[in-house]
Write the structure tokens for this entry.
Amino acid sequence: MNVTEELTAIFREVFDDEGIQLTPELTADDVEGWDSLSHVNLIIAIEMKFKIEFTQKEIRSFANVGEMIACIESKLNV
Amino acid sequence: MKSSQNIAFTCTRQPCETGHGNEQAFKWIHNDLSESLFTYQEIDRASNRIAQVLKQSGITPGQCVSIYLPKSVELIDSFFGILKNEAVACILFSTFGESALYDRLSDSQTRILITRKSLLKKVQKIEGDLNELQAILVTDLEAHQDDFIRSLPQLLAEAPDDFEFSAEIEAETPAFIQYTSGSTGKPKGALHVHGGLGTMLDSFKEVFEIQPDETFWCTADPAWITGLVYGVISPLACRTNQIQFGGNFGAETWLEILQREKVNIWYTAPTALRMLMQEEAELFHQYDYSILKRMYSVGEPLNPEVYHWAKKVFGCEVYDNWFQSETGSIMITNKPGRVVKPGSMGKPLSYIEAMILDDAMQPLPVGRQGNLCLKKDWGSMFRTYINKEALYQEKFNGDIYISGDLAYQDKEGYYWYVSRADDVINTAGHLVGPFEVESALLEIEEIVDVAVIGVPDPILHEKIIAFLRLKAGCEWSRALELKCRVNISNKVSTTATPQEYHLVDSIPKNKSGKILRRVLKARYEGKDPGDLSTMEEK
């Protein structure tokens, strides 16, 4: 599974929605229930799955899913 | 029998009949900050079509129609469409999970639910248990899925844009239900009537004093009493020049809106201000709010530190006020022309009689903390808790309404909030019942017992803390924390998610099994837990 596929599985679990399809342009406005509080759940799930840690600055700076994937890949040295 | 205007008539039809149909009802600002203008005539016609659809769907006066949508024009149109049928509207936060949704839809005996595709999945998990639900109307479904899940656009396309209804109706006609959390049991649905409109508008005029050339922005979601009464009903009825923003909180977005829309009067919440306070000071120098004349806040106490920060940064006075889902409109407030005492909720409105009483309902002297009570004679007061008349009666002692908040009055007549008198948690302006959170946590197989409390928090006013007893052999892990967080977010709501989880060997309870939250709170805060004679820890 690549990062996008793994991340899709995380999004589906966190937002309890099997229909979520990730695209690089996807933002919090496009996903029902993606607010500042569920963002914390998302970050915990991503950090656990990929065994990485985000800085506070990174957590606040993701403008869309594409930036999130790029950040994960950079930490994984993909 | 006393009569009242139908709220929908006052807000949508009357402006059209008095020559204001082509005037702007509101400017809608989308998530991407693009904007659309809506006239009174457009709102009247759109809500007429929804009223027609509901009537053709068999809705009759007094039946409940619920709206499960994020802030949107469809939400506003639906609300007035429901009221035009003299049906009862219930607006539900789009952040609600399936358990929270089920509790409210079943209690209100909702006949029709209006929602959108992205929220439909949560409804479908519980629809089989909702015996009264006759149809779900989906605002962004192109074609009917079946006889139960229907496309609202398809129905609207066939509906005429006129709708006959009575402007004058009996004042006690139910209009909307506002759910609020209790410290025990399920949420309570406070029922409001059309006859409450007069008080809502009186309070709007007395508190905000908005002039015809001024722009008003209320940031609250219409699922919250503030958003409905002061973001939708009052500004439309008073033909206030207002903006509506469909997105969530974002510091830069909000500041951009304040500047670009030249907002003069801004009604928001202390949590939003505290979140803004976390931003770098430099950010606030990038925008111009010199046109902002007054700020208002409601939902939780506005701490003096935040008051002084906001006054300095935005360069205008900040007026905090107090009311509840049950009171239907502002009761106690700071307002122009009255000296503001930072941290105080202000004084009662001109037609409100407030008092501080002890538990025996006797008046307390100035400066003494007690039950904040109101004399029961204002129009917008709730008329009952749906299906819970006994609980409603418990809120009164004769003609005195007992708010459930503790406060004191100073010698100059200002009221100061202290805390809730019960276990309800006020987090980020949302009232959360511990019972709902505990129920969601107990669904997790590793957890055998749980208790939830609220403790002071510098940003949220109160944050939610969970105490957990795990099944023998189970260990706490980050994965289990995530399981707890996700289950609460998806079953109750994101705002109900505890910020901290503490493992305990036992939950302190009294002999009848009631959780002694004061003991947990005292332990958490390192204070004396007080009398423990009734406590049994298992």
Q: What stands out?
A: Chain A has a mean pLDDT of 90. Residues 47 and 53 of chain A are 6 Å apart (CA to CA). The first helix of chain A runs from residue 3 to 14. The radius of gyration of chain A is 11 Å.
